[in-house]
Amino acid sequence: MKYNIAVIPGDGIGPEVVRETILVLEKIGELYRHKFNFTEALAGGCAIDACGEPLPEKTLKVCKSSDAVLLGAVGGEKWDSLPGNKRPEQALLGLRKSLGLYANLRPAILFEQLKDACPLKSEIIGDGLDICVVRELTGGIYFGEKGQKNTNFGKSGYDVEIYSEEEVRRIAKDAFEIAMKRDKKVTSVDKANILESSRLWRRVVKEVAVDYPEVTLNHMYVDNAAMQLIRNPKQFDVIVTTNMFGDILSDEASMITGSIGMLPSASLGGNIGMYEPVHGSAPDIAGKDLANPIATILSAAMMLRYSFDLEKEAYSIEKAVKKVLDQNYRTRDIASEGAEVIGTKEMGRLIREALI
Ligand code: NAD
Ligand code: IPM
Ligand code: MN
């Protein structure tokens, strides 16, 4: 079978982690006789430099005519002083919105091999941690009305958090469907003690829950959820939450996996899925062969599973990652005592070698 993949390496460590991932996919193609066709496109800071805008029309066209999108990361200090709608990060929002990717799955799983890299005590970790954060991705404060205006007290800036019933209903349904295949527990995270948008969110999630009597639903305020993720992460199975709360909580949850360099993601909801690591362009380590490519490589596994229905192939990647960790190879971010510390390229090479 032939699959067309749009590849957006982006900025900072993006190109480094994407390169290793493409090579992994190529090896999967050889082993399982698939043809992966990669079309590179510019987005983010590099697109601003080359074409004057973060998300060129041509890039959107490449994505729309592909079967899936693989993205590294965008952003960097060089572009930080540009106006909001011209910044590299705008490319991500544009891609998510135009591809209709309202559901962002961020599975935070602590691999057995990385227990030492997780900052939590072993009695908190117990026999392992496995949380799926389901983040709403095309609504909320990211996409509400925003701007700056003059007031009597000088300039004011504002961003409106707004959710429609339909936006909440569809992401809640997805979360319940995912929970049905897991431990059948959904925690909906909001700030319903303060925010009107959260009160609507909570009501609609409750309505959706009626169709899933087997799933246990609880509601939690976001401040408490942030604390509970550290105090007792085992209480969570599926967390469903808004765009901004999901952004913040998933970075927090990434430490459960040992490092943000481990956390993959899938953005779904439209015809074409987009797959990217949860981390950013990590300017502090860019170009130094220090980045952990595993989050991106595991995102490719999610692509094989969700976009192409290639479960065996996805599993092969996940197994290869675990095998390399079993052999005690670690990038710096997940290294603990006694580990063999290696760089981005070597980690990619070892994972490819472990593929069967
Ligand atoms: P970041 O995720 O880039 O980095 C945070 C910290 O984690 C840094 O110390 C970095 O070195 C480390 N880190 C991140 N990924 C790693 C990896 N694969 N291996 C090892 N260490 C890793 O977040 P930031 O510093 O807040 O943001 C930097 C830039 O990235 C900003 O411009 C931001 O807007 C952008 N950003 C982009 C995305 C994306 O493209 N999806 C996501 C988050 C941030
Ligand atoms: C992420 C990032 C993005 C977000 C930014 C870079 C737009 O932090 O994918 O988690 O906030 O969604
Ligand atoms: Mn983020």
UniProtKB/TrEMBL annotation:
Binding of NAD(+), residues: 76-89, 280-292
Q: Which cofactor does it need?
A: Mn(2+); Mg(2+)
Q: Which GO terms describe its molecular function?
A: 3-isopropylmalate dehydrogenase activity
**Pathway(s) where this gene product acts:** Amino-acid biosynthesis; L-leucine biosynthesis; L-leucine from 3-methyl-2-oxobutanoate: step 3/4
List the InterPro entries hit by this protein, alphabetically. IsoCit/isopropylmalate_DH_CS (IPR019818), IsoPropMal-DH-like_dom (IPR024084), Isopropylmalate_DH (IPR004429)
UniProt keyword Disulfide bond, yes or no: no
State its Enzyme Commission number(s).
Answer: 1.1.1.85
Location comes to: Cytoplasm
Q: Where does substrate bind?
A: 96, 106, 135, 223
Record flagged with keyword 4Fe-4S: no
Tell me where it mainly resides: cytoplasm
Keywords from UniProt, A to Z, are: Amino-acid biosynthesis, Branched-chain amino acid biosynthesis, Cytoplasm, Leucine biosynthesis, Magnesium, Manganese, Metal-binding, NAD, Oxidoreductase
Enzyme type, top EC level: oxidoreductase
Under catalytic activity, the entry for this protein gives: (2R,3S)-3-isopropylmalate + NAD(+) = 4-methyl-2-oxopentanoate + CO2 + NADH
- Residue numbers binding Mg(2+): 223, 247, 251
Cofactor notes: Binds 1 Mg(2+) or Mn(2+) ion per subunit.
User: Pfam families annotated for this entry?
Assistant: Iso_dh
Organism's domain of life? Bacteria
Its biological purpose is as follows: Catalyzes the oxidation of 3-carboxy-2-hydroxy-4-methylpentanoate (3-isopropylmalate) to 3-carboxy-4-methyl-2-oxopentanoate. The product decarboxylates to 4-methyl-2 oxopentanoate.
Q: How does it assemble?
A: Homodimer.
Q: Which family does it belong to?
A: Belongs to the isocitrate and isopropylmalate dehydrogenases family. LeuB type 1 subfamily.
Q: What is this protein called?
A: 3-isopropylmalate dehydrogenase
Report the source organism. Answer: Crassaminicella indica
